[in-house]
Design brief:
- This protein is mostly beta strands and about 60 residues long.
- The protein contains no helices and two strands.
- A two-stranded antiparallel sheet has the order 1-2.
- The radius of gyration is 16 Å and the shape is elongated.
- The chain starts with about 30 loop residues before the first strand and ends with a strand.
């Protein structure tokens, strides 16, 4: 998935919710790990931006 909050005309942007992901449970589970495998933020002029490591978290699955 690629997510962006940039505007084609340029200008300022601000942090906020960019995306919601809904999962459909296939079976119950007491603990299911979810984790982001990579983050590659890019700033103005294509410069790479620093990013904090995202810690995995567990969710309880109830179909």
């Amino acid at each position: 998935m690629t997510i962006s909050n940039t505007r084609s005309s340029g200008g300022a942007s601000s942090p906020g919710s960019l995306m919601t992901i809904n999962f459909r449970a296939m079976a119950a589970a007491e603990s299911t790990p979810l984790k982001v495998l990579s983050v590659a933020p890019v700033g103005a002029a294509g410069r790479n931006l620093p990013a904090q490591a995202l810690l995995p978290f567990n969710v309880e699955v109830q179909p």
